[in-house]
Amino acid sequence: MNSDRRFRVTYLAIALAACLPAAACSNSEGSAPKEAAILAPRVSVIEAAAQDVPIFNDYAAQTYARDMVEVRGRVDGYVEKRLFQVGSDVRAGQPLYILDLRPYQAEVEKARGALAESAANLEFAQRQVALAAAEADLAQAEANLLKAMQDVERLRPLVKQDAASQQDLDNAIAALAANEANRNAKKANVEQARLSTRAQIDATAAKLESNRALQRAADLNLEYATIYAPIGGRIGDSLIQVGGLVTRNAPLPLTTIVPLDPIWVRFKISEGEYLSYFQRGSDGHEPRLEPLDLVLADNIVYPLRGRIQNTVNQVDPKTGTLELQATFPNPQHTVLPGQFGRVRLRIDERKGALLVPQKAVSELQGLQSVLTVGPDNRVAARGIRTGERVQESWIVEQGLKPGDRILVEGV
User: Fold this and answer.
1) CB atoms inside a 10 Å sphere around CB 43
2) Residue (of 92, 99, 94, 103) closest to 247 by Cα position
3) CA distances from 142 to 134, 137, 150 (A)
4) pLDDT digits (tens, 9 = 90+) for 354-363
5) Which of 34, 59, 80, 84 makes a 20 to 30 Å CA pair with 373?
6) 338, 375: one domain
7) pLDDT tens digits, one per residue of 253-291
8) How many domains does the chain have?
């Protein structure tokens, strides 16, 4: 808020009391007014007026990257290419490093061959060739058994009529028993073939799934051999150069990426300020948090305003302060993590406050005063007591009233 908006500045020619005797001592009556006019200085005066003034507090703050990511290798290999410039902005999914792909390409081909073999074995097992042959043998045995039964049934009446010999009937009965035993053996073979086929199908299907998993793992390893940016942001220095060995268990990351938009800022307020600013309203709702200003190390106010996002979960018992975390839009990536500055937070609003510029206030031995201009344009010192500082002005608690005129410049 500019002083031109807060104050109404007027310029007056004020005759100081010390100059009047010199004018009275002049021998010439006509020269006295000219001498007084020459001695009267030109000063700027403001008129104190009551107004609503927002109260701000500044807090030491530091920027940081909340979601910084360490880029690490998931597979082992030598770096073939590095695809970024140190300190540049990268986007999520952008390739950063390419390792030696040949070993992983070979693993992929091997896994594909094993998968194709398992698929062929499963198809062969599903055709159930052995079971079909056993079922054919069983059908043949059942046909032979049926013929033997028919032979026995045909010979029995013939033997009673002496049309056939008993030897022929005995041979037919023996053949029937043999064919029945053969039929039972073939039926057992069918059951065994069915169980064996089912077990072969299950085994080959499991092998097929295992080989599919191996192929997926080989594909993943081949994909991991190209290292991509997990998030967007500004990338740091590369700790592994082209030709260096990347290991999945390396203690140090390959590089780091910090997101810069938005930029996070942390600062601390006292316990009393927290209770005053964040206390719940009578309706039980959270208070409306005012936007924040960020003053950088060069005392320039950052053009974009931020907002408080969260607080930590406890007050520091050593300092009696609570950490607050806020975000500021940073589309141009001009603010970097680790910078120091000040957060300006609106904590209150004074109704009907009187403001005077700081340069109009004099302080001597702890006592503050201003020069006031009376109705006759005479200057007099008046003691005051100031309160909060508002930009380049003080709020006057005592000593002034609306309408008083205060001398600002030309003292």
Assistant:
1) 19
2) 99
3) 12, 9, 12
4) 888 888 788 8
5) 34
6) no
7) 999 999 999 999 999 988 888 887 766 544 445 555 678
8) 3
